Amino acid sequence: MTPVRTEGWPQWPPPAGEEQRERLLRVLDSGKWGATAGGETEAFAAAFAHSVGAAHGVCTVNGTVALFLALRALGVRPGDEVIVPAYTFVASATAVVLAGATPVIADVTATLHLDPEAADRLAGPRTKAVMPVHLAGAPADMEAVGYVAERHRLAVVEDAAQAHGARRHEREAGVLGDAACFSFQSGKAMTAGEGGIVVSDDREVYERLWSMHNVGRRIEGAWYEHPELGWNLRMTEFQAALLQPQLALLEGQLEHRAARATALGRALEEVEGLDPVPAPAGTTRHTWHFAPLRYDPPAFGGHPKGALLAAMTAEGIPLDAGYRSLTHEPSLAPYTARMRPCPVAEAAEDTVVWVRQPMLMADNAAMADIARAALLVQQGFRQRPFSR
After folding, report:
1. Is the domain of 341 the same as that of 239?
2. Closest by alpha carbon to 9, among 352, 259, 301, 360?
3. Staple partner for 358: which of 12, 30, 285, 332, CB 3.0–4.6 Å?
4. What's the CATH code of the domain at 268?
5. Which terms are listed as keywords in the entry (predicted)?
């Protein structure tokens, strides 16, 4: 049988623009390829920080390192604990380990974002920071997180890797905590293949970030003066040249994905048991790094999520399986503290699928294809109920 969708999906990242080519060639011809030699990286750091309303920005080699730097700049040290949500990319936890601290895994709410009540219960005398994740481009409940942080005297690091341009109560992701970290990895809303940035309003935090990412130097200090412990974690001028033009394109891309997400939600109203996961209340701009959908197997003849993914792929709709709960990541087991079951995140392994960002860059007809394929799969599954 012919699949529902035979047409491909948009490329991500999009094809390079003329300004990107010109900037890359200018850097290439200048011979100033490192951040300490040219001006592209510092200019981009300032422009990106300004775009989210932050006073300062420090560009890094990737988003994981950005999280590591933010934690260290805010005083996290070996022996400390950092609370992270269970439903997130593993780097949220491994960045804590990289900083020498111990990740404490907290459950999430029905929105798949950090549960502030769970974080409150897990905070202890060794807890130094809490790191909410703005999952899929929807900001976490930062007011409730802030209450927990104030109550336990914790630093707040926003993991905004998926949230370029997101807003909560009309405030930008990036200024909702003590520091915020964004990623420019290949799949992100802005990308240079790799890269990251930490933004903060705090001048002292900025100076520590700058020093640590630049082998312990101090701003306006001598080249071979290293008063602090640091590493070479700098972005290259080539990456900054690729990123700078994308700031002007971001708004239009966000609006496009938001329109497609709305169209997808409407189309899925006809499909019982495949529903958009709601964003946290207070989200005023969701940037749709992906659209999470909650799958109800009984509505599909009891077939498990893996069967849905395979059947949808056969129809030309490659849905993504999404994350495993961090409580089920064996690599983290030796490093985690006070591990407790996280039932909401663990249930999401079997019930949540994603429509990825490139698919949301298609048109409304493509969103209708997703729903049409889901209906066909559902009909077939109901005719052949699952049995073990």
Report:
1. no
2. 360
3. 12
4. 3.90.1150.10
5. Aminotransferase, Pyridoxal phosphate, Transferase
Cα–Cα dist 220/214, whole Å: 12
Inter-residue contact 374 to 353 (CB < 8 Å): no
Query: Is there a single domain that holds both residue 281 and residue 176?
Result: no
Task: Please give the DSSP secondary-structure letter assigned to residue 163.
Answer: -
Q: How far is CA 239 from the centre of its chain?
A: 19
CB 106 within 8 Å of CB 122: yes
- Overall domain count for the chain: 2
Asked if 331 and 231 count as a contact pair (C-beta separation under 8 A), the reply is no
State the number of CA atoms in the 13 A half-sphere of 50 facing the CB.
Answer: 9
Task: Please answer whether residues 290 and 320 qualify as being in contact, where contact means their C-beta atoms are separated by less than 8 angstroms.
Answer: yes
Q: How far apart are CA 342 and CA 327, in angstroms?
A: 7
Is 147 domain-assigned? Answer: yes
> Do 29 and 138 belong together in one domain?
yes
Asked if residue 13 has a cis previous peptide bond (ω within 30° of 0), the answer is: yes
From 56, 27, 83, select the one nearest 197 (Cα to Cα): 56
Tokens linked to 250 = 């971001």
Q: Tell whether 233 and 126 lie within a shared domain.
A: yes
11 within some domain: no
Higher pLDDT: 338 or 28? It is 28
d(CA 80, CA 82): 7
Q: Which of 192, 226, 247 is the last residue of a domain?
A: 247
Chain position carrying tokens 């971001």: 250
299 and 367: one domain?
yes
DSSP state of 117: H
**Mean pLDDT for the chain overall:** 97
Burial 24-43 (b: 16+ CB within 10 A, else e): beebeeeeeeebeebebbbe
Spatial distance between the Cα atoms of 376 and 369, rounded to a whole number of angstroms: 11
Element containing residue 336 per DSSP (H, E): none
Q: Identify the domain boundary among 247, 276, 304.
A: 247
Tokens 């070479």 map to which residue?
A: 232
Per-residue pLDDT tens digits for 167-201? 999 999 999 999 999 999 999 999 999 999 999 99
Could you list the residue range(s) of the whole structural domain that residue 212 is in? Answer: 21-247
Assigned token pair, 321: 């399986």
Same domain? For 162 and 78 the reply is yes
Q: What is the pLDDT of residues 58-112, one digit of tens each?
A: 999 999 999 999 999 999 999 999 999 999 999 999 999 999 999 999 999 999 9
